Every structure is written in structure tokens, then in C-alpha cells.
Amino acid sequence: MTLPDLTYIAAPMVKQSDAPFRLLTQRYGATLAYTQMLDPHKLLEDRDYLEFHQRDLTLGRGARRGTAEPVVVQLCGNDPETIVQAGKKMQGLCDGIDLNLGCPQEHALEGHYGGYLLAKKDWPLVQSIVSAMSHLLQPPTSVKLRLCPSSSPPSSTVEFAALLEHAGASWVTLHARHVSAKRRRQGAANLDVVRAVKTALKVPVVSNGNVRTWEDVQKNKAETQADGIMVGETLLGNPCVFTNVVPDPVRISLEYLEICKELHDVATYMTIEAHVKHFIEFQCSRRPWYNKFRTALSSCEEVHDIEHLLRTKVTRWRGKAAPKDYNPCIDDLEYTTD
After folding, report:
1. What is the mean pLDDT of residues 99-105?
2. 87: part of which helix (H) or strand (E)?
3. Domain presence at residue 3
4. pLDDT of 263-284, one tens digit each?
5. Which residues 6+ apart lie within 8 Å of 58 measured at CB?
6. Average pLDDT over residues 84-98
7. What integer pLDDT is reported at residue 321 of this predicted model?
8. What's the rounded mean pLDDT across residues 78-94?
9. 228 and 304 both lie in a single domain
């Protein structure tokens, strides 16, 4: 079974891993991108939900001159049959299917899935899910997990990862923090555990956490010896991290909007607005005009409005020349540290 290139991965992020954003990160160094965590029950019971995410994958994979951009579909849940049946709805449109074992949110706690399947009492259940996925789905099966509960021995995460490998996981991604419904992060990720998992497993291991810059990517890889590095929220501000570039915030926003127009009706307007806000905020949050930008952005109603805002008011507030007719290729980007 051929695995996708795991070197640099755009992480699954709630309502932020839309096809246009995945494609943007892959233009700038990401070798693989994940969808957001999808609900298997909705994929099986809600036709609009299923068709929306199938369209996202279909258009995303065929957007660049017929070439398929590698993508992994992430599923959640605690029932092997439901997860497998949902996976079969998506398997022809992706390069892997991942089981989420890290979601820390309240709804995961209430539904008993994600990061709340890490206790030892749930290990047999998780093994049965991974085994069913690996045997009954066509693409390779992967798992993304967090550290086992702090009440467990420090070696428990390594032990659990080895069991997942034995159950059929083709690769393992570790976000080396504990699950907390109240705080998504509690200190730095423990990269020593990633290194221990990498040493123990034969399948590839991906490290997730502690990345803000390209230097952090290199440091993480050196410390963990992981086969790949996954980055999440940092990419929201700078989708070019994997190319060691800080792009001009207006131009990268315009490039994203061009992809959104190409892939019509894939990303929701709320998602598009959120991405543009992140791009501008990443470099300009302390500028005197930033609050005016947020107010103006919230008044926009469609992609054309956002584009006009960027090309006129934001450009004027920054004291920049108006962007020329936009050509979304790397040679046309002007990089700044605005």
C-alpha cells in the first residue's frame, strides 16, 4: 500500500480545512492536507452534509490542471461499523482515512470519542475500530492521538501507539499534549514522547505541536526524528510556513479568494471571512487600522466585497500601492514583514 508524502502536513482544523485553504497550503510546501474532523453519523444520515464534503474533495482534488492534491479524510466516533460505512462514502476521494483520537472539545466528551478514547479501558474498542478500518477501507488508515491521560504511566502513550500499529494503522500522528475540554493547550508539546513513539514503531510517525516558524519545523524534526511534521493554527496566519516565507498579507488573502472563486460553493462564506481575518491579523493586529478592518470585514456580504475591501481600504490604510491585476502564482507575490 502506497502512503502519501507525510513530510509536511496541514492539520485538520474545525471549519478551517476547506479545499481552497488546503490547496493554498499545498502551493506553499504542504505535501499533504487533512479535512476537518467529519461526523460519520452525518455522512450517513444527512445528504446535504455528505454532498457538501464530497464536493469539497472532488473539486479540491481536481482543481489544479487535473492533478489530485493529496488529502486525508478525518473521521471521529466510537462505533466500528458506523465509521467504516462512512469511510466507504469518502474512500474514492482521498488518499487516507484518519481516526481522530485527540479532539478535546465538550461535544467529544459528551459523545465519548476523540481524545476521550485514550483511557486504557477504551483501548480494545479503539483497536477494533482501527482494525475494521484497515481491513475494510481501501485507502490506508491512520490515527491522530494525544497523550494518554496523565493518570496513566508515562509510557502508556507509547504502548497504545504500538497497539494501534498492530491493529493496522499505516502511520501515527501524535499531538503530544494532554486532552483538556477547557484549555486546548497546557504548556508545550512533549516532544520526548514523540521521539519515544518513533523509536518504538515501525510505521511512520508524524509530530504535531510547538511550531510557529520554519525554524520550529526543523527543530521539531531534529528532536523527534519524526517522519513528518503536522502544523495547524500557525498555518492559519501564515499558510507559507513550509516554504520559510512570510507572505504579504493582502496578496495571500487575494490568492486564497481566487481559489475560492475557482472552487465555487466549496467553502462557506463564514469560513472564507475567517481565513482572510487570520491572514491579516497575523501580521497587522497591532496596526492602528486593524480594528477598522475587522469592522469593515464584518460588513462584507460576499467574496467580491472582501476583495474590494482588501484592494482599496486596506491597501490605503497600509500606505501601499494598489495591487495590480492579480495573478495567483508565486512569482507575482511580494513578500513583506508588514
Report:
1. 95
2. helix 80-90
3. no
4. 988 999 999 999 999 999 999 9
5. 93
6. 97
7. 67
8. 97
9. no
Burial of 325 (0-12, 13-18, 19+ CB in 10 A): exposed
Q: Is 103 a catalytic residue?
A: yes
Residue 64 has pLDDT above 70, yes or no: no
Burial class (CB in 10 A: 0-12, 13-18, 19+), 313: middle
Residue of 76, 94, 103, 284 with catalytic role:
103
Q: Are residues 298 and 191 in the same domain?
A: no
Report the C-alpha gap between 285 and 243 in whole angstroms: 23
Structural domain contains residue 279? yes
Looking at residues 137-155, what average pLDDT do you find?
93
With respect to residue 2, please indicate whether it lies within any of the assigned structural domains. Answer: no
Kindly report, residue by residue over 8-19, the tens digit of the pLDDT.
999 999 999 999
Q: How confident is the model at residue 328 (pLDDT cuts 50, 70, 90)?
A: very low
Number of domains, the chain: 2
**Whose grid coordinates read 488518499?**
95
CATH number at 61 reads 3.20.20.70
CA distance 223 to 216: 10
Please give the Cα distance from 284 to 281 (Å, whole number): 5
Max CA distance (Å), the chain: 61
Q: How far apart are CA 253 and CA 193, in angstroms?
A: 37
> In sequence order, what are the residues at sequence separation of 6 or more whose Cβ sits closer than 8 angstroms to the Cβ of residue 198?
205, 224, 225, 226, 227
Specify the range with the lowest mean pLDDT, choosing from 48-52, 72-76, 148-152, 172-176. 148-152
Among candidate residues 243, 260, 295, the one where a domain is terminated: 243
Where a domain ends, among 178, 213, 243? 243
Please check whether residues 61 and 187 belong to one and the same domain.
yes
Domain assignment of residue 16, given as a range? 8-243
* Residue 119 forms part of a structural domain: yes
